[in-house]
Amino acid sequence: MSSATPSVSRRTVLQGGAAGLAALALGALNPEQARATVEERARAGVFGFGVASGDPTATEVLLWTRVTPSRPALPGSGRGPGSRVDWEVASDSSFRQLVARGSLRTDAARDHTVKVVVGGLTPYTRYWYRFRSRGETSPVGRTQTSPDEPGRTHALRLAFVSCSNYTGGYFTAYRGIAARDDLDAVLHLGDYLYEYGNAEDRYGPASLAGTRDHQPPTEMVTLADYRLRHALYKTDPDLQAAHLQHPWITIFDDHEVTNDAYATGAENHEQQDDPDTSYTGPGEAPGVRAEGDFLARRAAAYQAYLEWMPIREPGWQPAPHQGTQFFRRFSFGDLADLSVVETRQNRSQQVPTTAGAQVNPALADPSRHLPEPEQLQWLTDGIQRSRKPWHLVGNQTVFARLFAVPRTGVVGGQVFNADQWDGYQADQTTLLQAMAAGSTHPVVLTGDIHSSWANDLPLSPDAAGYLARRSSVGVEFVCPSVTSDGFKEALGTSAAALAATTAFQVANPWIRYLEGIGHGFAVVDVTPERVQTDFWFIRSGGDKGLALDPRTDPAATVGFESAWQSVQGSRQVSGPVGQLGPRSDRPRGA
């Protein structure tokens, strides 16, 4: 199918697998029905939560699924007998040409999820895979090894996404990604799921209450909660289809644990239990929740993430680090590298942007960190030592300096958000200096802020303006959210959102493109000569959200919005430019 016209019905039947997967689309569900949907999916077939692949290299790819045991066990229940699972990888979709196969066991200790790293594969090649257990066969997934052949330059095209809140709307953006046949992988930059419940803390359009509800119905805190929430998201047909079609490279941000997380706590976490509002388990009426010890909560969230996501086990590429190592690097031949960073586990607690009537000096305190120093050193070394044309950085929060719009109460030079790199300016400056010193062209790919951006990265941004002599040392592209509230939802009207984006660009002239209304995804395409990012928005009747809210429309479509690029050697954004065309080459087997 042409990449320029993604179009897949919400009720598309996924290729292969049990007959029960023909009815994936979710209707109007109240909390009890949403929970029942997860239970029914567990009982409807062995592989009711789909299949996925991830972390591809030249010769390896990870495969994932969840197996419902012989006595159906709800995800997170900690119940059910173990299962033997067989897996197969073939170079054709009919599995006449098997290239690898094997068996393994899973059980309740890992919530009956399955991961296997398949090696011995050929670079830049498409493969098909499936699982078998208890007499059933999974849906057939498609995956691909990396275009990583030294001395050869292949095409490289990735979708990148973030901020997919289930209660925020239908996952139309994932349907658009699933319809594309031109991607090497999908890069998810965090907030794959959200921790909130369905009561006072509900997040998303009010019209979807009773239609897109979270399970468990309250904020997730325990291991059982996080497992059940992951399972709910994996019942979504559009998300299943996107996993089925492409390998993913994923990293978490804060909402996979809880909002604005840092090393020892989070904005959305209360250490002190309140016995009058405690919550004891799934099925209890929604309400405020006793959240307990933060590190225990985070450990539960990380465990569920590793069980339910197609990500390799921590420390796959050993490097000095603190805590658990999730950061890692991918190579794409002589064209580019991709460094995926993790910026929540070890970050210092956020501080206010101002202190009295001045900018808070703690923002620039060199003892405060976003990634731990060892990870920052790994990243700067990778950029400075690279001799490839491009170095991509998969990053959670906005990296470019973003000054607040001047208004009453705003201090001169005040940054907009201290949860971004602006809140950790010593680390921000260290990375900018490494970009300036390296010969590679840095391209930061970012999520989190629920809007679309193309930014220059000046080495010394100044609140007074972007002076011509202050050259940019790299570029940043920021993808829109899949469903989470953007400028329009935060400010109330499209007119207010448009005014805010204009004001931000005036205050920060290195922002070359900013759009705060549309939701969707971005596609980055890399050639030796340039990097280009196309922005794709979901639409209802052609409206990207100016008058309607396409997130609430199960029949919404996706459409091209705008494209921006950076030419090799410029280290600046240029555009707008025309929409991407066909790839320069295609992987073997495509």
From TrEMBL:
Transmembrane segments: none annotated. It comes from the Bacteria. Residues 50-145 form the Phospholipase D N-terminal domain. Signal peptide: none annotated. Residues 158-535 form the PhoD-like phosphatase metallophosphatase domain. Residues 267-290, 567-590 are annotated as: Disordered. It holds the Pfam family PhoD_N. InterPro entries: Metallo-depent_PP-like, PhoD-like_MPP, PhoD-like_sf, PhoD_N, Phospholipid_Metab_Enz, TAT_signal. This is Alkaline phosphatase D family protein. It comes from Klenkia sesuvii. The lineage of its organism: Bacteria, Bacillati, Actinomycetota, Actinomycetes, Geodermatophilales.
